[in-house]
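tool=predict chain=A
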Amino acid sequence: MQYAPEVSAVRMSEIEKTGRDVGVQLEYFFTPRLSLNTGLLHAVKRYETRGSDYHVTYGKVPLDRVYAVCGMLDIPLNLRYALLYRPTYQVFASAGLSSLLMRDEQYELWYTYANQPVRRTRQVVNGSNHPLSVLNLSAGYERQVQARWGVRAEPFVKVPLGGVGYGKVKLSSAGVFFSVQYRLLPSALQMN
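tool=predict ok
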């Protein structure tokens, strides 16, 4: 089980509010140091961007600003390598790709009409899917607290490989995953 507070932005100078990721992951160990993990995360991303970054116009009027709250499913596929491996803790780095399934996109669209600011809203339910559209990079620390139980802290960045959602924005995210883990099988060091 994991939880992450995160920030999302199209331009890193325009970070507005925090979002979050929550979900579960499964991990398969090829060796004590090398593993593959996948899972299902429910992500809520909150961001603000310029109208020029949002690739949909509202009618024939160009947008000035867009505020968004988007709920999506994130399906990561990551390789993890333990840089420092000890019986009770490890320091690791991880890289991989995520597929995003847009589930609830809520937008506040601002534009100027007759020299007046105008606000409109738009909601897209079960919108577009974006396979392998995000590069995941992270590093972290994991500590074993009992024979099969562990805790993990993992700062991460998610880098867009293409546009996502209704407006096809290139949305970056950063945060820290906090995880509680249970190993179904004992680790190789515990078996020796």
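Residues 134 and 160 are 5 Å apart (CA to CA). The chain has one domain: 2-45+73-103+130-191.
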